[in-house]
Write the C-alpha cells for this entry.
Amino acid sequence: MGATALRNGPSPVPAPIDSIVEVRGISKTYGNVEALRGIDLDFPRGKLTSLLGPSGCGKTTLLKIIAGLIRADGGTVAINGKRVSAPGPERAFVFQDFALMPWATVTRNVAFGLELRGTSKAEREEIARRYIAEVGLAGFEDKYPHELSGGMRQRVGLARALSVDADVLLLDEPFSAVDEQNRRKFQEDLIRLRTNQNKTFIFVTHSIEEAVYISDRIVLLSPRPGRVSQIIEPEIDRSGDPERIHRDRHYLDTVDEIWQGLKQYVE
Amino acid sequence: MAVSIRTDGEAAGLAPFSNRNTTGASWDQPILLRLVSIALFAGIWEVAGRIPVSFAFPTFSDTVVAFFGLLADGSLATAYIPTLQPLVLGVVLSAFLGVGLGTICGLWRTGEWLLIPMFIVLQAAPVAAFIPMVTFVYGIGMTAKTLAVMILALPVIVLNTYKAVRNVNESLLVMCRSFMGTRWQTVAKIILPDASPVIFAGLRLGVAAGFVGVVLAELLIIPTGIGDLITFHRSRADYAEMYATIASIIALSTLTLVFLQWVEVRVFRPESRGA
C-alpha cells in the first residue's frame, strides 16, 4: 500500500541549490526517550518548508534546536553557512501559545524584538505600525492582547517576528490555538505574505491539509525516534485564488498520499 | 448583603476594580453601591450604639462628632506625627528591601536557601511577640517603632515577591530569549512586570501588617502617637473619641491600600484598568 513507498526512505528529490539553513546529524534524547536521531536537512532560501508528523516525532524539538532554544545532543545547525547554537538576529520565532506580554499593547508587543535590540522608540513604533498593517491588524495598535481573539493574537506574534527583519521565520504550530475559520483565513494570508516578504519559513504542523496547502516543501518525520522519512514538494499553483487550492486535484492527491504514509504511525 | 460584601472588598483593595461579570443598571454604578455599603454599615453601627450593645460602645453619630472634635483641637494631628514617621519609613524600607530580597531569592538559588527559610519562620511566628524585645534593644523611640513595622511587613512582601518571580510565565521567558534579550532585560521587561500582580498583593498585605505593627508597638510598649491616643481616651472612658481614633487609622490604612492598587493599575498593569 501507500506505506511501502514510505519505507523506502527519502524520495529522490534533488538537493536544493541554495539552502539557508543546514541541519547535519542532529540528535536529541530526553531521559531515555530518543526524540531525534541523525537528522540531515536543508531548507531552501525563500521557500516555505513544513515539518509534518504525528505527535512525538520531534518536529517542535527540531524547530527549537534550529531556533537555538534547545541544545542538541549532537550535530550542527548552520544558518547562511555559519554554525549557530543560540538565538540570533537572522531567525525569529512564532510561538504556539502566542507568548504575548499581557501588560503591553499590540504596538509594544510587535516592537518588542526591536526594543530588546535598543532601537529608538519612534523608529521601532514606526516599523511596528507597518507590520501590524501587514498582518491585517490596523486599528488595533493600542489594544491589549486580552481584547483580541486567538487568531488576532497570533497575527501579533507573526508581526513581532516579521518586524525584526530576520531571514528565517520559525513557526511552531502557529494555528493550533486558533479556531478553524480564523485558521483558514490566516493560512490564505500567510500565502499572500510569503510572496510579499522575501523570507524563508519553517513551519511545524500536525495538519496534513495545512502543510500541503501552504508549503513548497514538506518534510515528513516519523516518530520514536524522530527521523526524516520522506520529503515532498507539492506542485500546486498558488498564484491565483487561494480558495481554489482546496479543490486542486494535485492538492487532494498529495494530502491523500501523505495520509497513506502516516497511517501506520496512528494506532 | 452580597452587595455590601463585594463593595467592601473593593474599597479595601482586595478585589479588582473591574466589574466585568456584572449585569443590570444598578450593577454598573459601583460608586453608588459603595456609598450604599458605607451607609448600611453606619446605620447598623448607629442602631447597635442605641440599643446599646455595651455602655462602652458609642453610636455612629457620637463617633463622627468626636472625630471632628479631635480634628478641631488638633490632638489627632499631633498624635499622627509620631505614628506616621516610623510607619512611612518602615513601610517604604520594607517595600524596597522586600521586593529586592524577594527578587534576588527568586532568581538566585543560593539566596533562596539562605533567606527564604528565615522569612517563612518569621511569617509563621507571632512576630508581635518580638516587639517587647525590639524595644528592649533599641529603646522607646523611632527605631524601635520602625523595626516593629518592618518585622511585620517584610516577610510577606519578601515571600510574595519570591513566589511571583519564581513562577514567572515560562513561555514569555523563552520568547525573550528567542529575541536575544539579555539577563537584565529579562528581569526588567518580563519577570518584574509579569510578577507585579502577586508582588502588589504582597505589598498590600505588608502595608496592612505595617499598620498593625505600629499600633501594636504603641499600645504595648511605646506610649506615643495614635496608640497612646487610643489608650488615653479609653482610660478616661471617652469611648466616642476612642472609636473615632481607631476609625481614623482604619480609614487611613484603607486609603493607603486603595492608593497602592491605583499605582499598580496605572503604572504596571495598564491592561487591567477598566474593561
About this structure: The CA atoms of residues 113 and 119 of chain A lie 9 Å apart. The interface with chain B takes residues 67-69, 87-89, 91-93, 95, 97, 99, 101-104, 112-113, 115-117, 144-146, 160, 164 of chain A (CB under 8 Å).
